[in-house]
Amino acid sequence: MVRRQIAQSVQSENGAAQTTTACGSGTTAAVGSLILEQCICNVGFYPFADTGSCTACPGGLTTRDIGSTDFADCIISVATSGIATAFASATDGDKLVMEPGTLTEGAANIQFSMKFKYVSIYCDTSSAETCTWKGATYKGVVYIYINGGTTTLGHIIIRDGDSNKGSGLWVYDSNALLVVMSFINNSASDKGGAIFASYGSRAWSLLSHVLHQL
């Protein structure tokens, strides 16, 4: 728990007295903090390089928690159900952080298409809840197409895809980095139940799990 006020100890002849001093604009401190130096950037703020003061992230961006140390901490936070809309509005290099939830609605044959741009998408791991992208009968889950860079996906469960190839994830003429991902119960009639990389694509996996693929 955090608050915008910190207690600063002031000594007097009659003993110790306490006054309450406010942290500056865009900052906060933990309950029980005693000095102004313990004020840190609040959610949605980052330390401006030239002055060190906490500055609001640009429009549409926020931070995952208090205590940002760099502009790179500013990200776009979206509901899992709104990830396709957020991707459509994003530009190369953007980072999207999803609130936990399940994506179950998408195009007729693919749940979520990521075409012609490289955008990183992570699940918010601040709680025990998860982010799940779920396919359906005759529907794959994710399609990354000619992204022009490297797409990073992190802490997302991809499950129940069903198509001819790449039912969980199909990477076409693109690069993808998969960080602590889980692929569960994805089925392909041809190849790549969990992951299929084609046309010179590369998919790197770090600490990801592939379970029950067909």
Order of helices and strands: EEEEEEEEHEEEEEEEEEEEEEEEE
Helix/strand-derived class? Answer: mainly beta
- Measured between the Cα atoms of the first and last residue, the distance is 46 Å
Strand order of the largest sheet: 8-9-12-15-19-23
Tell me what you see in this structure.
The longest helix is centred in the middle third of the chain and has 7 residues, at 83-89. The protein is elongated, with a radius of gyration of 22 Å. It is mainly beta and 214 residues long. It contains 1 helix and 24 strands. The strands form 7 sheets. Strands 8-9-12-15-19-23 form a 6-stranded parallel beta sheet, covered by helices on one side. The protein has a 5-stranded parallel beta sheet with strand order 10-13-16-20-24, with no helix packed on it. The chain has a 4-stranded parallel beta sheet with strand order 11-14-18-22, with no helix packed on it.
Helix and strand topology:
Elements: E1 2-3, E2 5-12, E3 15-22, E4 27-30, E5 40-41, E6 45-47, E7 54-56, E8 76-79, H1 83-89, E9 95-99, E10 101-103, E11 110-115, E12 120-123, E13 131-134, E14 140-145, E15 150-154, E16 156-159, E17 162-165, E18 169-172, E19 175-179, E20 182-184, E21 187-191, E22 195-198, E23 202-206, E24 209-211
Parallel strand pairs: 8-9, 9-12, 10-13, 11-14, 12-15, 13-16, 14-18, 15-19, 16-20, 17-21, 18-22, 19-23, 20-24
Antiparallel strand pairs: 1-4, 2-3, 4-5, 6-7
